[in-house]
Amino acid sequence: MKHMIEKIKSLKTAIRTVFFTSVCVLVIIELFRLRRTLSGADLRAAFADIPAPHILLMILIGLIAVTPMLAYDFILNRELGTIYPKSYILGTSWCVNTINNLAGFGGIVDIGLRYSFYVPEEKESDGVQAISRIMPYFMSGLSVFSAISLFLTIFTPVSPEIRRYLILLIGTACYVPCILFLSSRKNMKYFGRLRMATAGKLLLASTADWACVITCFVLTGYLMGISIPLFNLIPLYIIAIAVGLVSMIPGGIGSFDLIMIAGLESLGIESARVVTWILLFRLVYYIIPFFFGVLLFIHYMGGRINTKFHGIPKMLLTSAAHRAAVLLIRLFGIYLVLSALIPDELSSIPLLRSLDPVHGQLLYQFPSVLLGVCFILLGRAVQENVSRAFPFGICLLAVTFLYVNFGEVSWAASSAVLLLVLVMVQIRPRLNRIQLVYSAEAFTRDFLILMFTLALFLRFSGHRAAGILFRNQRYLLSRYGRLWLQLLAAILLITFIYQLIVRYLSAGRQPLGDAFDDARFTSLLQKYGGDSNSGLAYLRDKRLYWYRENGADAVAFQFAQSGSKCVVMGEPIGKRDAFRDAISQLLVDAEQLGYQMIFYEIGQQTTLLLHEYGYEFMKFGESALVDLKNFSTAGNHGKRYRTALNKIEKQGFTFTITGEPHSDELLDQLSAISRRWLDGRREKGFSLGFFDRAYLQKAPIALVKNSSGEICAFANIMPNHSADTATIDLMRYDADLCPNGIMDFLFVSLFLYFQGKGVRYFDLGMAPLANVGSFEHSFFQERVAYLIYTFSRRFYSFNGLRQYKEKYAPEWSSRYVCYPKASWLVCDMLAVYRADNRTPN
Question: Where do the domains of the chain lie, and which CATH numbers do they carry?
Answer without folding.
Answer: 15-308 (no CATH), 313-506 (no CATH), 625-815 (3.40.630.30)
